[in-house]
Amino acid sequence: MSYHVFFNFSAGLAKPITAPKGTLANIVRHVEDIEERLGLERHQYGENPVHWSHHGWPAADLDDKELCTGVEEHNQWVRWLYDRLAEWAETPVADGEVITPDDAKGFWHGLRTLDVPARRWTGGYYRARMEALYEAMRGRPAEGISFDEKALTAKQAGAVIRLFEQYLDPQDLRLEVPKGCDFLASSYHGEYDWCERCGAVLPETAEACSRRKCPVKEGWGE
Asked: Partners of 18 in the beta sheet?
């Protein structure tokens, strides 16, 4: 696997960029909001850049769902902003606002992606992580993750995901790749049925099963 680090190891803007009007205020607002929601604190040592202190973070009294939701939304925003800044640096926005390197010093610490300790994962956060890994293993980069080897088949990638579930799945989602599909589905949410012959199948495709008295085709005895 290869991982794109986005802003994590960058020091700031190298030169001014021209972005849509209101961009600077929106960036500052997002950083301040995520700091308040997730209890992130700014620290600075001497002349070094400001950074978020992860000592004791995340706090035990921060709800797991709020933690996972906030981190997920923030990381998506970071990846979105990374692409937008690249666009604006290459093609300045007409009649936009200029964001200078000095401006960036006030928010650059807030452009790093965040990780949630596995013990704090919700079912939704686990699923999002597994879906990103599945996409990468299928040869479709996701969330900055790229698979450096030959892409796995859907069956192979699904098998790898199942290796993780006994250690990471907090909700018993039982993620599987339904027969004939190229995505993960959850038994917990009723997204697939289980056929003794075919394995996970979407309810609407169960009629294709050739097994006599297939429990899916027979509606599980209904």
From this structure: 98
**What value, to the nearest 5°, has the Cα angle with vertex 138 and ends 136 and 143?**
20
Number of structural domains (the chain) is 2
Cite the beta strand spans of 55-174 per DSSP E. Answer: 97-99, 145-146
* pTM score: 0.89
Provide the residue range defining the domain that includes 168: 130-172
pLDDT tens digit sequence for 44-67: 988 888 999 988 999 999 999 999
Same domain flag for 109 and 140: no
Gap between the Cα atoms of 67 and 59, Å rounded: 10
**Residue 212 belongs to some domain of the structure:** no
Measured distance CA(108)–CA(8) in Å, rounded? 10
pLDDT digits (tens, 9 = 90+) for 172-197: 999 999 988 999 999 999 999 888 77
